[in-house]
Amino acid sequence: MSNSELTTDTGYQSLLGKISEVYATGQARAAQAVNVHITETYWRIGRDIVEFEQGGNVRADYGKALLTKLSRDLTLRHGKGFSRSNVVRIRQFYLAYPKGATLSHLLSWSHIVELLKIDNPLERGFYEQQAIREKWAVRELKRQKETSLFLRLAAGKDKDAILQLAAQGQIIAQPADLLRDPYVFEFLKIPEPHQVSETDLETRLCDHLQPFLLELGKGFTFVGRQYRITLNNTHYRVDLVFYHRILRCFVLIDLKINDLKHHDIGQMNMYLGYFATEENTEGDNPPIGIILTRNKDELLVEYATYQMNSPLFVQKYQLYLPDREELRRELELTLQLADDSARDENP
């Protein structure tokens, strides 16, 4: 059989595909095995360093120089992998996870280095669980840290909910679990105070669909933009429509660049009614509506949604990174107030 005949032969193509699949799987398993070996090795090295220090083997006069000397000597013996910064992280790895390198099978060393840069154990625990749960690449982990995802999700929660968030990550069990305060679209790189139209904002979000889906969170699949619905020969269009695989429902998003009006809420409620009746199929849950606006009048939203049963939310978005220190202060204040209240109740 000639080369040209082999190329078009279905049996050969099947063989080629099977070999490629086996090879790709083998490569992935080999990479995972290397990662497990590296992280477990680094954890043991970190343990040896800490035990050496704690055993009284480090005199005060050269204690601070220990890591520098180790970095130099280990590099001479073994080559790359022992820069001073990496030796510092290796030691820190053991101190942060003294019970064992439990992350080695789940996250790469590059993930762990990003986690070790987080001083607060609550924040570190959240990003650790979330990176595992949502299978974040290192780049995605960095982005979520930069946008203060943990602090945004913790905003408005009580102490118990914050501790649960830190220990388990974000668990999507009900519509409110989807929300972030605020949503951050810094990836669009629109400078402040530059103004964009709603159409332009929608276009930019669709052009940057991957980071947009990352910001929305796990479970979102894109359905369409300017999704047309027709009532009594009148056409309406929903800005963005998604389907959430975990909650098994449509999620409708409308974008507002100006102040929110009460009729915007009424319009979204109409969209929800239409989707519940006309678009839902067996097994679908009621659709969720999210109106994203630059400015949110809490009182207007309260009155406009009075006795409204639909899962409809009005959330703020911004085009720049949030003030991390301000969010951190709010978190610390919430925890402090909770601790003070507990002490008052149990003097």
UniProtKB/TrEMBL annotation:
Classification via Gene3D superfamilies: 3.40.1350.10
Limits of the YhcG PDDEXK nuclease domain: 177-331
Taxonomic superkingdom: Bacteria
Matching Pfam families: DUF1016_N, YhcG_C
Domain YhcG N-terminal: 19-152
Gene Ontology molecular function terms on file: nucleic acid binding
Family matches, as InterPro entries: PD-DEXK-like_domain (IPR053148), tRNA_endonuc-like_dom_sf (IPR011856), YhcG_C (IPR009362), YhcG_N (IPR041527)
Chain coiled-coil ranges: none
Signal peptide bounds: none
Name of the protein this chain belongs to: DUF1016 domain-containing protein
